[in-house]
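All the exercises in this workshop are built on plain-text protein records. A record pairs a protein's sequence with a compact description of its fold. Read left to right, the backbone structure tokens trace the chain's path through space. Once this layout is familiar, the rest of the handout is easier to follow. Here is such a record, shown just as it appears in the course material:
>
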Amino acid sequence: MNIGLIGYGKMGKIIAEIAQNRSHTIHEIIDPRAPEKTSEMLMKETTSDVYIDFSTPTNIRENIRLACAYKKNIVVGTTGWTDDLPNIQKMVQEAGIGFIWASNFSPAVQMFFRTARQAAKIANSIPESDAAIWEAHHRHKIDSPSGTAITLGETILEEMKGKKTMLFDRPEKKISPEELHVSSIRVGEVPGTHTALFDFPSETVEVKCTSRNRSGFALGAVLAAEWIREKKGFYCFDTVFEEIVR
């Protein structure tokens, strides 16, 4: 299929390589800063079968709006926009396009989410259990905490009934038992490390995923593009992952 890439930084280049290895064509490159660009924004005359967006939180809402206006199916891997999720879902449904998003498209991370969910479910049944999350990324990452950490936190909140909210800031007081502390580190060129900690009076269990590079994220995005190409509707990769990789 013909793929349009929105954003041609490190992720965009890896996505291009993986897509081409899977016999797809990079039909368009939309990025105002990339020397290889075919355009600076999504245009009405665009002819790609599906678009993959790994741009910035600043641009993502406009990119989605244009995809809806021009009836183009789109995969969104950009994070930092989900506070506007209900409005974007409504926009997508009214436009009648195919839309799939994820905080993290890596198949390994999807496995990690499911493992952490099961661990949280078990911890919920054990008295005096507690939980926390920490994540590390490269110093260039724009958003903090990561979208992956937020998704992981939402998963734990769903399973551990004693946890009600996530705490992202440095605690200024004794932490409440209902708070799930999520801490973030930004250093060097770390692609991404996420750890869910489940603590008990005598032991601590860690469920951890370490990304050595961005290839897993890119592969998942291309798999999502293949899946969404001829579909309509609003989907989260987390919920259709098993169907995509079947």
Q: What stands out?
A: The longest strand covers residues 130-137.
